[in-house]
Design goal:
107 residues, alpha+beta, three-stranded antiparallel β-sheet, two-stranded antiparallel sheet, 13% strand
Length: 107
């Protein structure tokens, strides 16, 4: 398949794309931890600028003090998730790096 896919430029972008390919939705808080950045919305912005279709839905919740808040939950539609999975496979084939969920062995 010679499908043109938006680029994945950094390990952080790879981790975000891989997560969105595998999960139906992910909170901004969880995405910060997954991608390794304290500002995952910036990573999402860069991915959108590169051509990825990533959506954010604000979900009404109560915080630990009972105050209503609207945290963001990111997701991609199924066809885009399939493209993300394919792009991750391509990235993994040419980007050997231990932080990309590869098994790391110690000496």
């Amino acid at each position: 398949c010679n499908m043109s896919l938006p680029p994945i430029k950094t390990p952080r972008e790879y981790r975000v794309i891989k997560c969105l390919a595998q999960k139906e939705k992910v909170s901004r808080k969880d995405l910060d931890e997954i991608c390794g950045a304290l500002n995952s919305p910036e990573v999402i912005r860069n991915l959108r600028h590169s051509g990825w279709s990533i959506f954010c839905k604000r979900v009404k919740m109560a915080d630990r003090d009972g105050k209503v808040c609207l945290p963001g939950v990111y997701f991609a539609l199924d066809p885009e998730r399939e493209r993300m999975g394919l792009s991750c496979e391509r990235w993994e084939a040419v980007t050997p790096h231990p932080s990309l969920d590869k098994k790391v062995t110690s000496r």
